[in-house]
């Protein structure tokens, strides 16, 4: 989990339900579920104000999960509903069905390693590892002509995927258990970033059928290669992209890296690791 970009939601009393139109499609179903649990047929009389950078959506940052959880939690607090984290996430926010990383990260922070289950409940956390606070993540956005992967587009792409090869899955599991998790636990930057790059590429190949390779499209692939050619480490595609990340051992090393490279490789933003939940 990273500390930027942040999502802030404020819920305040009002004469009737109110929220900016751009967030209605996300917030209204959540408010309806809150009202139903509270035993009401009407939406709560409140004003929901979302303060965040909406341009960050569908870029591989999990911003949709964070926004839904923030709205759900704010409304539950407003309605004085005492619900569990799983009920808040699954039943009210309608998140965590494929992966619960974003949900657990919202509540706990850190590096989240989840365990797949039967899909009827949130995947449990196997490891939650706080990372060294001096580490930085730079986030880059290439120009891309493709529509963002979300909603029905994402569902259709998942539906087209072939079954994963067992040998490929074993490679991923070995990389995770033998390299990525141990190096993260030790705070071993070199081992961690090497494992992140390997794991990201291997996991991306599971989606090669629908995204054309380990990364989603030519522009993302080119950006990953350029960053690596300039010496960036821990480079990969975040979710479906188009966002690309690179890890740096400190703010100083990140500054040094960007002193002599092309302006096209300037990051969209830089984040610190977030080892605690947002709220």
Automatic annotation (TrEMBL):
KW Glycoprotein (keyword) present: no
Boundaries of every GHMP kinase N-terminal domain copy: 33-103
Keywords from the UniProt entry: ATP-binding, Kinase, Nucleotide-binding, Transferase
Residues in GHMP kinase C-terminal domain copies: 187-251
InterPro entries reported in the protein's UniProt record: GHMP_kinase_C_dom (IPR013750), GHMP_kinase_N_dom (IPR006204), RFAP_synthase (IPR004422), Ribosomal_Su5_D2-typ_SF (IPR020568)
A Pfam family that the UniProt record links to this protein: GHMP_kinases_C
Protein name per Swiss-Prot or TrEMBL: Uncharacterized protein
GO molecular function: ATP binding; kinase activity
Keyword Kinase among record annotations: yes
Taxonomic lineage of the native organism: Bacteria, Pseudomonadati, Planctomycetota, Planctomycetia, Pirellulales
Coiled coil: none
Protein species of origin: Rubripirellula amarantea
